[in-house]
Structures are given as structure tokens and as C-alpha cells.
């Protein structure tokens, strides 16, 4: 959040090339490729990310069915997420992140253990319709080439404007995805899932519209809204694109109303996420949850992200240098507060690290100094990283520490503004660079966030030997539990046992 709240050049000529117009599609394309990296790493370290994301949906569906609220609405609340291992989720009570009917080597369909035979989700029944890391990365490169060609042809060859080039790119992408080509079916399925979760972000859950306790926010919607917060500057650019197109070919007037719509658009992800926190706080209050205050603290954290964004935009309409200098000082203070608050929340709450400082007493001096750490009788000694961060690190101590340090640096990437004129040719390139940094930070954040959620979901279901083996060598077959093992893996493991 910290780096993407500044805005670049807003006002100026409505025609001709403009780097600000190319920022949004470039950042979106990079986000798609980085999610492909996430999928690859989740598979490498044996984390069933599809099951982690959709477990709350499965539980909610089961609870509704037990209460008689689940009326025959097949497909209306189905979330299909393909993974690198062909993962899809049917929330109708099946607590597994894989298809119940998985084709065997001879092409036949074999029901997996613990599942009743039923009709598969039509979104995942299409051949080669699963989302893999290779497909996501390849798709991002294809979009990047298309964006370059659109700009080259429309601006340099046809002599059009950057606005026309951007609209041509978006239209080409829409047409390419909409065409009923079997090889792009997975993209259409992914878009359907994204649109469905987007609707759920604005779906009312308050008690005033339905009796009883409001519906809890599932983890997948929290995860999706957090991702949108990192793309808030994209929403701002889309609002500015609308203004540029509306006033074309005249420049956008330097008035306060010219930044109103872009600022509101950029604020939407933070407002949605804060609303989710307030809903969960309401549910906690109705259930007398002693930890409900955490949701209010989280909502306050997202409110600290709004002010830098709004003041940075307002700074563009200020004419006097004295007022600009005053706003700059306020902006730096707000950046520092938001970055520090968000970083602490990342480490302690989102990643579940450093939650028990009292346990460091008596272990820190020896384990972190290279000596043998203290350990209770009958238990294995822990390393310094396991002691300070948390006992279970699915990505291993070195990777976890590296991600944490990079997150610290990228949270404070706004400090580059002090060397903006020395490092960047203009403000738009500086903003684009910080947006890329935020996309990378979010991709790294995703790894530890899903890992921590997976640890909470599988607490007590995996042995220490399984976790220790995964941390030592993620390339070895991971002895996962039945909750995270695909039917094909179960078949292979059973055949090895028979041999």
C-alpha cells in the first residue's frame, strides 16, 4: 500500500504519448505474471493454495445447508480456482481442493477417496482449463507484447493519441478473451471467478438486510480485496483516463473536481477492505469475541492508507509553493505512519510472526549466536528464525527472512521521492517504478499470507516430520495430509505402498 498512493502528472495535453496512460495496463500485466510465480512456488512447497483460499466458502456452504438455508442454487455461489495441479473447488460440502473425478492414466474417471460421485463444475470440466504458472506467465508476456504493438501501431504508424492506443489495447484483450477458442477457456473461467469475487466484495452482509448474525467475510474475499489495495493506483489511472477521454483533445482543467472521480476510484479498495473489517468486528461483538478489537485496528490501518492518496492528488491542484511545501511535509508524516503501521501488521497479524516475544527469553542468546538453543526435554531444538518468527516456516527460515527484509524495504520505497529528480526522468516514471515495487511486494506478501492461513487451517493435521522435510528440501515429494493431497497423488502413493 505504501508506495502506490502517490499520483504522477495529472494535468497536461490531452493528446500525444503519455507515460501515465501506459502505467495501469503495464502494472496489471506484471501482477498476472507475479501471480503465476506465486502458483509455481505454492506447488513447489506443497501448499494447496486453492483449498486455502476457498475453505471458508466450503464451510459456509455446509453451514447453510445444515440450517436449511441452502436452496437449490447450484452455480450461483460457486468459486472455481484452477491451480498448477488441476485444483478446483466445489463448495457444496466437499472439503477438498481437487476435483472429485480425476482422469486416470488411461483416460477413465476415478472418484477420489472421501468423495461422492457427482457432476463436476462446468467451469472446470473444459479440457486443459486449469490455471497453471506457465499459462499465467505466458499470458502476461502476450499481453505485454500486445500493449507494445498497440502503442506502436496506433501512435507511430496511424498517428493517433495515447488514449486511442490504450482503448485499442483493452478492446483487443476483450475480443481475444471472448472468442470461443478452447485454448483460452481457462482465461474466461478465471475472469468469471474474478467477476464473481468482485461482486462479493460489494455484497451486503449487514444485519439490517438479513436477520441474524451477518455473514462472515471468507478468506478469499479478504485476500482479493488486499490485492486490489495494491492496485489502487490503477483505479486512479482509470479515473484519469475517463477524464482525459472526456476532455479530449483539450487538456484536463486544473480544478478540484478533476481529481474527485480518480481519487474516489483509488479509495474504493481501501474502503471495501475497511468495510470488511467492520463487518467482522460486528460479528465479533455479537458473539462476544474478545479479539474483535483486532478488526477495528485493521480498519484503522486501511484508513491510514487513504490520506496519503488524497493529499497527493490534492497537491497537484495547489498553485502556491508555500502550500505545496506544507502538504509535502504532511504527506511524509502520513507515509511514515502508514508504512510503519502496515509493516507491523504484515509481520504480526498477516504472517503470524513474532507473536510471542516472551518465548524468546532464555533462547535468543544461544540460538541466535550460533550455539545450540535451549529445548524442553523430548522436543527438538529450534533455530533462531523459528524462535523469533514462528515455529513452522513452510518456506524455510532463509526464504522467510528474505521475504520479510524485502517487504521492509518496499514498504518504505516512498523514500525514493527524496531522490526523484536524480533517479527518474519525470514523475510518471517514478510512480510507475513504485507501482512495480508494490506489485512485487504484494506477490511476496501473498506467499507468507497463504502459508500462515494454511498453517492455521491444518494445525494438528501435519506431523513435525512432514513440515521439517518440506523446509529441508521442497523439491522432495511432500508428505501432505489428505486435506492437501490430490486424488492422483493419493493413487500414486497407494501404488507405492502396494509395491
Structure description:
The protein is globular. The termini are far apart. Strands 1-2 form a two-stranded antiparallel sheet. Residues 11-17, 71-127, 472-490 and 492-499 have low confidence and may be disordered. β1 and β2 (109-111) form a beta hairpin. The chain has 499 residues and is mainly alpha-helical. It contains 17 helices and two strands.
Net shape? globular
The helix content is 55-70%
- How are the strands ordered across the major sheet? 1-2
What oligomeric state do these chains adopt?
single chain
Pick out the low-confidence regions: 11-17, 71-127, 472-490, 492-499
What integer value in Å does the Rg equal? 25 Å
Topology as H/E string? HHEEHHHHHHHHHHHHHHH
DSSP helix count?
17
How far the N terminus sits from the C terminus, by CA atoms, comes to 53 Å
Summarize model confidence as the mean pLDDT. 76
Helix/strand-derived category reads mainly alpha
Strand content: under 5%
What characterizes the major β-sheet? 2 strands, antiparallel
Would you count the extended β strands for me?
2
List keywords for this structure.
499 residues; mainly alpha; two-stranded antiparallel sheet; 17 helices; 2 strands; 1% strand; disordered C terminus
